[in-house]
From TrEMBL:
Keywords: ATP-binding, Kinase, Nucleotide-binding, Transferase
Positions bound to ATP: K77
PANTHER family assigned: DUAL SPECIFICITY MITOGEN-ACTIVATED PROTEIN KINASE KINASE 5-RELATED (PTHR48013), LICORNE (PTHR48013:SF11)
A GO biological-process term: stress-activated MAPK cascade
EC number: 2.7.12.2
PROSITE patterns, per database record: PROTEIN_KINASE_ATP (PS00107), PROTEIN_KINASE_DOM (PS50011)
Family per record: Belongs to the protein kinase superfamily. STE Ser/Thr protein kinase family. MAP kinase kinase subfamily.
Name this polypeptide is given: mitogen-activated protein kinase kinase
UniProt domain Protein kinase: residue ranges: 47-286
Native species: Adineta steineri
Amino acid sequence: MPGLQLFNIEQRQEPVRVTEYISKIPENSTVFTYDQTIIPIDVSQLHKCANKIGSGSFGKVYSVNIKNPCEMRMAVKRIPFRPDKNSRLSTYFELSTMEMIGTGNTPYIVDYYCSMIDLNTSELCICLELMDTSVAKFYEAMHSLIKLPSKKLDRFVQCCAHNVTRGLYYLESKNIVHRNVKPTNILINKDGEIKLCDFSICGTLTDTQLDFDAVVGTAMYLPPKPEKCAIQGDMWALGISLIEIINGKHPFADYESYGIAFKILEWEPTVPATVSSDTQALILQL
């Protein structure tokens, strides 16, 4: 998100805990535990057989095959490791959150393996569970079918609602708000598992001192009266995402970005009748 201010650089020093945390990120190599096996890994392994599977303003994501000491596939999120305070605070948010909640504690959030700084490319490498695609790409494929069975669409929407809600509930139990729920941050694999990802702008409900100066998130998924850190914002974004999945496009896809904030204020949410009345009622309650 261009122009995002995490805190006022001129008026505030970087929090000590952020400085200490960043200083302890391993460089070029580290170890992690997978399937009860301790696995050493270094940046050279992350370059081998790496295929780019996604990109965004944050950086790029690759699928990587690790063969020693055991064979496994993982996703590697590469983010330019910049020394400015804004980037460092964003790094702190994402890694500290993933270490706390993404280590197999819940089936509704992607697993976190490890992270390290690639000194050769000046990138932060975050190693995560590899999923097959995003829900955004999946619903596009669904709607490309000549005839999309309404019952299958209804079931898929219900599964997305259930899994993301459970993921958000787990975050709330840790006093965390996601703040960037959208179809591109909801992943799915070939087994039909649906999981939440991307914690780079998450917030904490208990520590208001270490936070962004302004409301953050993706504009098209923000509620009419957004708050800096509230679970209601995540629920609204989930509701918008579910309507997007059903329609095959965002409700405001035809509007210019600068007019969305005004459109949301007068918008009356409606859910297409292509899903069951129970699903419609559920979405309208979010």
